[in-house]
Amino acid sequence: MKDAISWFEIPAVDLGRAQKFYEKIMGITFTEMNLPQIKMRIFPIDDTEGIGGSLCDSDGFHKPSATEGPLIYLNGNPDVQLILDKVEKAGGKILVPKTQISPTFGYMAVILDTEGNRIAFHSIP
């Protein structure tokens, strides 16, 4: 097994609002994919073997949570602080400020996004 994660989905109550939030704080552009039971906005991915994920509006199957369920760490390189500096202006909230894990493993931070999801970011110095 190359990586423990192959795909992730972040719940969105308002997909347009969630898309704008993540595009603003991460400086990315999503790809739209709408299936019969689920509307998705796909995070950019460098190649087909990389780890991918999406924002999802699944009409209630996915539920945002600030306190329950897994905690997803998104790529915050080169510095999670660059993302944190944009979070509140984009409508989110910082739950855990930039915190050093160790000199080897870098830094992490946790935010609450516009949909009510607790999401973390990680960067390596």
**Shape type:** globular
Main beta sheet strand tally, sense and closure: 4 strands, mixed
Give the strand line-up of the largest sheet.
1-4-3-2
> What is the CATH fold-level name?
2,3-Dihydroxybiphenyl 1,2-Dioxygenase, domain 1
Total DSSP E strands: 8
- As a percent range, the share of strand residues is 35-45%
Structural class: alpha/beta
- Order of secondary-structure elements: EHEEEEHEEE
CATH homologous superfamily name? 2,3-Dihydroxybiphenyl 1,2-Dioxygenase, domain 1
The number of domains: 1
Compute the number of helices: 2
Mean pLDDT: 93
Low-confidence stretches: none
Q: N-to-C terminal Cα separation, in Å?
A: 26 Å
| CATH hierarchy class name | Alpha Beta
The Cα radius of gyration reads 14 Å
Identify the CATH architecture. Answer: Roll
| Subunit organisation of the chains | single chain
Topology:
Layout (H helix, E strand, L loop, with lengths): L6 E5 L3 H12 L4 E4 L4 E4 L9 E6 L14 E4 L4 H8 L5 E10 L3 E7 L5 E6 L2
Parallel strand pairs: 1-4, 5-8
Antiparallel strand pairs: 2-3, 3-4, 6-7, 7-8
